[in-house]
Design brief:
3 domains; single chain; Integrase_cat-core; alpha+beta; 9 helices; two-stranded antiparallel ribbon; Integrase catalytic domain-containing protein; RNaseH-like_sf; nucleic acid binding; 4-stranded antiparallel beta sheet
Length: 221
């Protein structure tokens, strides 16, 4: 990419993670993105927040829509401290071993993953594919504008197996839907910033217990 700090627009907005720790962005920049494959590909302009984090990769936050954040890894990255592969022989050899040894990269091994054997993942994929076909099939070249709405709908809809939304299990609270902002719901009209921050902190403290309870319900289901 060849980005430099001087190319960024200053940004004072803090970014918060699951642990409620804030990170100050280096700045923001607007870049073109090519979405889709030729001949149906289109170019859209997206606003990025550039953040310096202690990670094996430099990460950029791309805000493609108001209620949807996606993570994109930049092409500039440091050497990872560990590479995890399965136990098959194609990952064995002098070149790979010497490459890792010269760069002090640890090697880890894990069992072979077979997604088709994971019923939970297959069920989720089935729902997402159905929503993609229903909502995007007749949009032609405008499908990229509506694409973020499909995963957003899935994340904010309670699952019958867990009774919770994927969004609440990730962030500890339910999302405020755009329709609530337009209709002035009870949630929106009675919003209090200080009380909300306190409730968010309590929800994050109880999040692991909520996930454990959801996992137990899922196993029973």
């Amino acid at each position: 990419m060849g980005l430099q700090v001087k190319d960024l627009v200053p940004c004072t907005q803090l970014v918060y993670g699951f642990s409620d720790q804030s990170v100050a962005p280096l700045g923001q920049i607007r870049l073109p993105l090519i979405v889709g494959q030729v001949p149906r590909s289109i170019t859209v302009m997206a606003q990025f927040l550039v953040i310096d984090v202690p990670s094996a990769f430099n990460v950029m936050l791309c805000r493609l829509a108001l209620y949807d954040l996606q993570f994109i890894t930049s092409v500039f990255h440091r050497v990872p401290y560990k590479i995890i592969t399965d136990n098959r022989t194609q990952f064995e050899g002098y070149l790979l071993s010497s490459y890792c040894s010269e760069r002090s990269i640890e090697r880890g091994f894990s069992a072979v993953v077979h997604p088709q054997a994971n019923g939970q993942v297959e069920a989720a994929n089935k729902v997402i594919k159905k929503n993609l076909k229903t909502n995007l099939e007749n949009l032609k070249g405008r499908w990229v504008d509506e694409l973020p709405n499909v995963p957003w709908a899935y994340r904010t809809t309670p699952r019958s197996t867990t009774g919770k939304t994927p969004f609440s299990l990730a962030y500890g609270c339910e999302a405020v839907l755009p329709v609530e902002m337009n209709l002035n719901s009870f949630h929106v009209n009675n919003f209090n910033k200080k009380a909300n921050e306190k409730a968010m902190a309590e929800n994050l403290d109880l999040l692991e217990e909520r996930r454990d309870a959801t996992q137990m319900r899922l196993e029973v289901y």
